[in-house]
Amino acid sequence: MRNETSAFYFRQAELDALANGASLLNKEQRQTTIDYLQSFIINDLFKCEKPEETLSLAWHCFATLKSLDGIEKYEKALFNTLNKAPNIQHMDLQNLEAYSACWSLLKNYTPDKFLAADIADHLLQIRCPDSSWSHIKRSPHSSLYGSWLAFSTYQNIEKAIPEELKVLNLLNKIKAKDDAFGHQYEAEHGSIASTYFAICLLKSIEEDIPHQLNNWICEQQADDGGFLATHIMPFGDINSTAHALLSLKNLDKPFDSVKNDTLNFIHDHYQNTGGFIAHCRELKADPASSYYGLVALGIVDSYLKL
Prior knowledge:
This protein is mostly helical. Helix content is about 50%, strand content about 0%. It is globular and about 50 Å long.
């Protein structure tokens, strides 16, 4: 996950926090989480209930397993899963980013020698008329999430991001009225996810990050200790909490004021049978929430309480 054009690597920052979070589990917690994630691997293939989510969940599953148990014993299953993926021309941007990120996990298997070039060509073909990317296929307007996915994909395949500064046009247009970043143009309120994507994009092109975002992010902490995906949500979720903490870390600001409540939130969403649930109304753990739960724990940097 290294090339010479990006100043900040999105997935690597997450993986560093993930590895730290994994190291903070005790032996029993580590093993139950490994067992839980291994349940998705059947006959050396990753399986999930929704085929359209296979690549995204595979990334979260195998990246988490790597942090807990090393990747070597899972490489064959990941390689087989990637070989069964659809042609990149038929992938949406979320699956394309996950596909490229999964390849970057492997040590003993390599993709077709033309894959990186093919992905780079495809990214140029799906670039929006306004010069950034959208996570929605054939959209005329770019999005922060889509641009984050495209930048991350370029990083995963170790290719330069062409005319990367053009993303500033999007960043300038999509600020919300509360000075955070929103899902859409002229939004009244920002969201944690969009603000995280914006901070990553700004860091990657070495642009200044608005200092007022620190206070705004801290204000998004819910009564349950987690962070709100949007201002209308009544409770926090693991994904938004990880994105909020990653954002605060990227801002190089202390967050002692939110740390204890956040740790309690992370603890409350850990399942004794292994893995994390997404939010308080979810009953089952899932690989993505388990990934982000450990990312959040790795940033808070405290041992998970039994």
